[in-house]
Specification:
Number of helices: 16
Helix content: over 70%
Radius of gyration: 29 Å
CATH architecture of the largest domain: Up-down Bundle
Strand order of the largest sheet: 2-1-3
Order of helices and strands: EEHEHHHHHHHHHHHHHHH
Strand content: 5-15%
Structural class: mainly alpha
CATH topology of the largest domain: Receptor-associated Protein
Largest sheet: 3 strands, antiparallel
Distance between the termini: 75 Å
CATH superfamily of the largest domain: Type II secretion system (T2SS), domain F
Shape: extended
CATH class of the largest domain: Mainly Alpha
Length: 402
């Protein structure tokens, strides 16, 4: 939540600005750590008189964080101090929201806060995984390497997620256009044709009666149908924000033929990559599993990883814990076992991540190759049935007149 504040610094000068925090108390505590005496603070939307913020206009994208991480890594390698790094980047980035966040991070650093703690104040931009990676880098004294790992990891994740999403955009667009065109034909063209057929007095085929009935329904109740559809989408979205809804939709995604396989490989790639990156950076095994669970992006796999973490805490090996879950393929459990026995778990997981990234890429390519001809057949069939239901009776009418 964003708060607007007024405060006095140690020299008695008035300062004002905005700060993002989970609560007002948290915002005040953060400002006090910056050696500021808060005179007033209130939610930003309330201060500006806006009912809501157009936050989507200044949203920080994954791509922004990828570029930022690469820049931070480069500056740390050049022996630039942390405070100067964030001050410099705050003045250089194009995204205004990201610039404000980096400024607040720099203010926290100036107040004596560690980098990881300063970044943790902005969970919408810097995930739990990101913060813990930075904390590990601070503890090991390898911050430049850590930000390099983060940049590489985020770059891979962004590339593979974008490719998977783009593969689904095309069919979604085509299907949407198809339903719009069919809706226009059923509400504007078919009613005119049906009048001619009814007035002719000839017998109308059953399939044509079905099309006319559907057309009449959309003409008379179409607005209610659209309102109901929008309402269903809205409440489905709200339900997805709840735990039962999230569990249901995450399960559905994995059960859709072929699409489910794509999602499964995407999550397995993310698990292996997250785990490998954190272990390579020196994050403890149990903590790596728990953090991976929080960022995997699927409720089913999150529950699996949490259970694996609990079993590892109880003394089980990672491979044995994985082997108890059908969601984890046998090949992954077997390779993790080899990594544990040889002491090369990080390397093995990196190999697994590369394997599953290739699998996702190949699955997406195959999916696109299958979708295009399937779309042509289905769309042609739909339009053909609609036209046949109209043209055949008209042809029969013309024949009887002739």
């Amino acid at each position: 939540m964003l708060f607007a504040y007024r405060a006095l610094d140690t020299d008695g000068h008035e300062r004002q600005g905005s700060i993002e925090a989970l609560s007002m108390d948290s915002a005040v505590s953060t400002l006090q750590r910056r050696s500021l005496i808060v005179s007033s603070i209130e939610p930003f939307a309330k201060k500006t008189g806006l009912g809501m913020e157009l936050s989507f206009l200044k949203k920080v994208s994954n791509k922004d964080v990828v570029i930022l991480s690469r820049q931070i890594a480069t500056l740390f390698e050049a022996q630039v101090s942390a405070l100067r790094v964030f001050r410099l980047l705050a003045s250089e980035v194009d995204n205004k929201n990201l610039s404000e966040i980096l400024t607040r991070v720099a203010d926290d650093l100036q107040g004596g806060s560690p980098i990881s703690k300063a970044l943790a104040q902005h969970p919408k931009v810097f995930s739990l995984f990101y913060v813990n990676m930075v904390r590990s880098g601070e503890e090991s004294g390898k911050l430049s390497e850590t930000f390099g790992y983060l940049a590489d990891y985020l770059d891979r994740t962004y590339e593979i997620a974008t490719k998977a999403q783009n593969a689904l955009i095309y069919p979604a667009f085509v299907i949407s256009v198809f339903f719009v065109v069919m809706g226009l034909m059923l509400t504007m063209v078919i009613p005119q044709v049906s009048k001619i057929l009814i007035e002719s007095g000839q017998e109308i085929p059953l399939y044509t009666q079905v099309v006319i009935g559907l057309s009449n329904f959309l003409v008379q109740y179409g607005i209610f149908f659209v309102i109901g559809l929008i309402g269903a989408v809205f409440f489905s979205y709200r339900w997805m924000q709840t735990l039962p809804g999230r569990l249901f939709f995450d399960d559905v995604k994995l059960e859709i033929p072929y699409i489910g396989t794509l999602y499964e490989k995407l999550y397995l790639s993310r698990i292996a990559d997250n785990f490998a990156t954190m272990l390579t950076s020196g994050v403890p095994v149990v903590e790596s599993v728990e953090i991976t669970a929080s960022v995997v992006g699927n409720a089913r796999y999150e529950a699996v990883l949490k259970d694996i973490g609990e079993q590892v805490k109880g003394g089980a090996s990672i491979s044995d814990a994985m082997n108890r879950h059908a969601e984890i393929p046998g090949i992954m459990s077997a390779m993790v076992r080899v990594g544990e026995e040889t002491g090369e778990l990080g390397s093995i997981l990196t190999t697994l991540a590369k394997f599953y990234r290739r699998e996702v890429s190949n699955t997406v390519d195959t999916l696109v190759d299958l979708i295009e001809p399937l779309m042509i057949v289905l769309l042609g069939l739909g339009v053909g049935i609609l036209l046949a239901s109209v043209m055949v009776p008209i042809y029969n009418l013309a024949g009887s007149i002739g």
